[in-house]
Every structure is written in structure tokens, then in C-alpha cells.
Write a structure and sequence with these properties.
- The protein is 17% helix and 24% strand.
- By secondary structure, it is α/β, with parallel strands linked by helices.
- It has 2 domains: 231 residues, Alpha-Beta Barrel (TIM Barrel), CATH 3.20.20; 132 residues, no CATH class.
- The chain has a 7-stranded mixed beta sheet, covered by helices on one side.
- α4 packs parallel to α5.
Length: 395
């Protein structure tokens, strides 16, 4: 298994009796192992280089340099999952006319990785037709010319990297999300594999499990895995649980907490997926109109089910209209049978939205950090909510 700390991914080897002999020193699959050209077992441990693929930077020269490969090696790792955007190699206005500076950028990274004894797993993160992971990129599945472009690009990459032992292999497509049926990804993966093999018989292929079909993220009996007709293939999955641990402090998911440890002695659960078991609607309501900072004592409630081990604060906003509601300095207390404070479970001076998730039933409104705080210069604000809305935290 390979662990990619930025995505917590994993690998399942093809499990076939053995691949055809690979080129000298090139990694390949042998049964349930990855081995080098001398037949020695190799375990890939590394991180991902994002290469600014989400901002569609065509040549991400400012993303990293050889120093970062030195850091990977110094941390005891030997692999980088190397994100690629098709725009680095071709323009939409001239598909198939591959750009020399794109190849030079790839060659520079291969040279840096080689000097630091790091393998590159070339991952097509943004294919022609669009980035997949969030349910986008439908054009790849609904427009045949986009698939043809992807196949042609992989053929060119394989031809360019043929015989290069620093390249561990070709990760055909990141987190596929098809529009109609699972066969769309199975068929495309098979076609890409055939095209690559015509150009490069030796490098491993990495085929990811299917993530969703037409917006349905449920798993089939095989959990989205399938085989292609190539024994030198690694089958890959991405694992994001517990989400608040794997994505803590990630800028693109601001509702995840900071500095989360795992295992969590309190509860090893997906906190943000919890069903509501007990709570109260009896807490005080804000008066209409403007009001100064005021302390409101929430209503107590009993938790009698011993199976309940996780609680979360919810800041509820209803029918605020054009108004704004500021929140700051929260305290969560445990009461005894007489309603007296037994202990303070949690206190929080709200200085930003990290760890808070804003939900609104009708899609209206939002939450921001405010420089108007209770006793300091920061709080959080819910604004523009018409219907039901709330801010929830996992703490």
C-alpha cells in the first residue's frame, strides 16, 4: 500500500501471476508486489505535488523546484504523485499540437526527481473535458472527441517517457465520475491502456476505482473497482476518513478543524455525517432590531443514551432577512442533576471560520469573519439568510 498523506490514497496490485518482463530498472507489478528491474520489492511512500492544476496554471514553474524533491527524500519518502493538467501540453484551440515548454517542464521534474532518488507517478488530474472529482468534467464522458484527445495525450506522454525508470507509471485519470454508466470508465480505461502499450510496453498503469455515476456516490458490490486486460496494472483508491483528520487546515474545505489528532480518543467517527439524536429548540431568540453584544444562556437538555459520545455546537439562524447575526465567545457546559455547572467542556473565542460549516436550506446567505468582536477584533457573522440556516462546528 502506498500512503499519500495529502489524499490518503492506497493501491491494490493486479494480483495476476506476473507481468511481462519490464525494461531495465523500470518498476513493474509482480503478483501482489511492485518490484524494480532487478526483481526487488519496492514500497512507494510519498506525497502529491498539486502543480496548481485547480487554477489551470499552464506551466506551474512557481509551484516547486528541485528543493522540494530534496525535502521529499529528506523525509524518507521515495515517490511523488505528480498532478498534470492537459493544458500544460496542448491548447484547446490546437488539440494534438503538443507544446515544447510543456515537455521541458516534465523533463525538468524527471531530472530533479532522478537526482534525489524519487519516483514520479504521472497523474492526469485535469483531462480534456474537465476536472472530475467534484462531479464536474461531464464533457469527457459525453463528447467522444474529448476521450480521443485524452488517449492521444497519454500516447504522447508514454512515448516521451518510454524507458525512463524515474517514472513509476501512468495514473490514467483522477477520481472518475461518469455521467451514465460504470462502463464509461471501464471502456475508456481499457482504450487508454491499449494506446499506451503501443507506445510503451513497460511502465505500470494506475487505474482508479469509479467514484460516482450521474451524481450517485453509492458503491456497488466491487466498491467501484474493475480490472483491465493488462497485468502490469495497479488499482488505486483514495480514502478520506476520518475527513477532519485527512483534510485538517485544508484551504478548500474551511469547515474542517485545525490540529486534529487520530485516533481521537473521544470518538472515531465521521463527525459531520452524524444524525441528530438529541438537542434543544428552546434556546433564547434574538430580539428584532439592532442590539449590543449580549450574553445568552442556552437551554439545557439531557443526553441519556450512553451510545452518544459526540456533541457539536450549532449556531442557528432563522428568518434573519437582510440582517446580520454576530457570534463570539461560546461556552459549552455539563450540568448536574440540579442544573448547576459540573464542568466546562469547551470554550471558544471565535476569531475565524476555520472548523465551521455554514448550511442554508434555500441556498441563500453566507458566513464571514468579522473584525467586530466581543472584547477583541474578531467574530463570525451569518448574513442574508431567509430560511433555515446554521453554523456547525466539529470540536
Amino acid at each position: 500500500m502506498m500512503l499519500l498523506p495529502t489524499v490518503l490514497g492506497g493501491l491494490l496490485l493486479s494480483g495476476n501471476g506476473g507481468a511481462a518482463p519490464a525494461g531495465a530498472d523500470i518498476l513493474h507489478v509482480r503478483g501482489s508486489e511492485i518490484v524494480d528491474g532487478k526483481g526487488r520489492s519496492v514500497v512507494l511512500r510519498g506525497v502529491a505535488f498539486g502543480n496548481d492544476v485547480w487554477t489551470n496554471t499552464r506551466l506551474p514553474r512557481r509551484h516547486h523546484d528541485e528543493t522540494d524533491f530534496q525535502r521529499v527524500a529528506a523525509m524518507g519518502m521515495n515517490a511523488v504523485r505528480f498532478y498534470m493538467n492537459y493544458r500544460t501540453f496542448e491548447a484547446d484551440a490546437a488539440p494534438g499540437q503538443y507544446l515544447a515548454d510543456g515537455w521541458q517542464w516534465l523533463d525538468d521534474n524527471i531530472a530533479w526527481a532522478k537526482r534525489n532518488h524519487v519516483y514520479l507517478i504521472l497523474n492526469m488530474h485535469v483531462p480534456p473535458g474537465g476536472f472530475q472529482s467534484l462531479g464536474n468534467g461531464k464533457a469527457l464522458w459525453d463528447r467522444p472527441e474529448m476521450q480521443d484527445r485524452l488517449i492521444a495525450l497519454w500516447t504522447a506522454i508514454a512515448r516521451h517517457c518510454k524507458g525512463e525508470p524515474t517514472v513509476a507509471g501512468y495514473d490514467l485519470l483522477n477520481e472518475p465520475v461518469v455521467t451514465k454508466a460504470a462502463a464509461q470508465w471501464r471502456d475508456l480505461a481499457g482504450r487508454i491502456a491499449v494506446a499506451i502499450r503501443a507506445a510503451d510496453p513497460d511502465h505500470m498503469l494506475f487505474v482508479e476505482r469509479l467514484n460516482s455515476i450521474a451524481g450517485d456516490w453509492s458503491e456497488d458490490a466491487d466498491r467501484g473497482f474493475f480490472r483491465i486486460a493488462d497485468p502490469n496494472t495497479v488499482y488505486e483508491f483514495h480514502f478520506y476518513k476520518p475527513f477532519h483528520f485527512t483534510h485538517q487546515s485544508a484551504s478548500w474545505v474551511p469547515f474542517t478543524a485545525e490540529n486534529v489528532r487520530y485516533p481521537d480518543a473521544r470518538a472515531e467517527v465521521e463527525w459531520f455525517l452524524l444524525d441528530r439524536k438529541v438537542g434543544t429548540e428552546a434556546s433564547p431568540k434574538l430580539p428584532p432590531g439592532d442590539s449590543p453584544w449580549t450574553f445568552y444562556l442556552g437551554a439545557g437538555f439531557k443526553v441519556e443514551d450512553p451510545a452518544i459520545v459526540v456533541g457539536k455546537p450549532m449556531l442557528v439562524v432563522k428568518n434573519a432577512g437582510p440582517g446580520k447575526v454576530w457570534f463570539d465567545d461560546l461556552t459549552l457546559e455539563e450540568l448536574d442533576g440540579d442544573g448547576k455547572v459540573k464542568r466546562v467542556i469547551w470554550e471558544k473565542n471565535l476569531t475565524g471560520l476555520r472548523g465551521w460549516y455554514f448550511w442554508t436550506k434555500d441556498g441563500k446567505g453566507g458566513a464571514v469573519r468579522s473584525e467586530n468582536g466581543h472584547g477583541d477584533g474578531a467574530s463570525i457573522v451569518a448574513a442574508g439568510t431567509i430560511g433555515d440556516a446554521n453554523l456547525g462546528a466539529d470540536v
